[in-house]
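Extended Data, panel c. Modelled sequence:
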Amino acid sequence: MDKIAQQTINENNYYLECEKPWVYWLLIFTAGWFGSYTFLLRGGVFCNAQTANVVLLAMAVGEKQWSRAAYLLIPITAYFAGAFFSEYLGKSVKRFHFLRWDTILIGIEIIVITVIGMLPESVPDQISQIALNFICSMQFNTFRQVKGIPASTTFVTNHIRQVGSSAAKYYRHHDSQSAEKIKVHGLLIIFFLLGGIVGTIIGEVFSYRSIWGSSVVLVIIFIRLSYADLSYEKDLLPKVPHGH
């Protein structure tokens, strides 16, 4: 095998820091925190996904509740916009060769979370909901695979399915791939649960300012990813994470 082919194989098998398990654990931990925050303190809704809102939209249209339907289009549109901008910006920032888009996104999330925590109780809950819809969508679209395994960092429905499916395959074949998937998806479920638990406990103590606690976790991610971008992965900035 020639050197160029060997180099290509090595690059394909190399996982960037933004694809490492620890990043996904902390991100889904914050997602659990976001969900508990909006449900307990900002309107009794979950911001991490839009399936429920689409169902409610369909029901509103079916019942000819046009104002309700129009209202539900707002969070759905925010989620759509998050996916659009993350895809567009993710490709655009590469030409600067400074920080990866994945790292920049975490910085944006920190700013958004800081502002949300500053909002007084009198501010409509929808502002916090839409802001979190937007950044959750960007995060979901940006972080797609943990060491080559497709995974979400904002909700756990697919992780639960993957654990069940992989458990059945492991019971049948006892293969290492199924065991690894059980481990990856199972840990993501656990960290999501932990985020929701911590967010609930801190929310009961610090109320609307409690969401700042999640930004501490995001700061840790931002610092470590920035260090990777500026040091040992500096020459890999053009490399696209798996799944994109």
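The CA atoms of residues 100 and 237 lie 6 Å apart. This feature is highlighted in the accompanying rendering.
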